[in-house]
Specification:
By secondary structure, the protein is an all-beta fold. The chain has a domain of 42 residues. The chain is 0% helix and 45% strand. It has no helices and 4 strands. It has a 4-stranded antiparallel sheet with strand order 1-2-3-4, with no helix packed on it. Strand 1 and strand 2 form a beta hairpin. It is flat and about 50 Å long. The termini are far apart.
């Protein structure tokens, strides 16, 4: 039985690559520091407003820090 040494981006941790699909289940979380991979204060996720429009939201400690609508993403 073959053994995988590396599986591309099946389980992304801190990187969003061109061509990756983002849905409401994917939340990227920052590291605590460059050399500390503990969960940091920032998250990046897809959210929908009341009209059903997709927005990408950056939050700091669960409070919205930025919101952007990016057509074509």
């Amino acid at each position: 039985m073959p053994t995988s040494l590396w599986e591309s981006c099946k389980n992304p941790t801190d990187t969003f690559l061109s061509g990756m699909k983002m849905d409401e289940n994917l939340i990227l979380t920052s590291w605590q520091a460059d050399d500390d991979p503990q969960r940091g204060p920032y998250t990046f996720k897809l959210d929908q407003d009341q009209q059903g429009e997709d927005h990408y939201v950056v939050s700091k400690k669960s409070l919205p820090h930025g919101k952007n609508q990016m057509p074509g993403w």
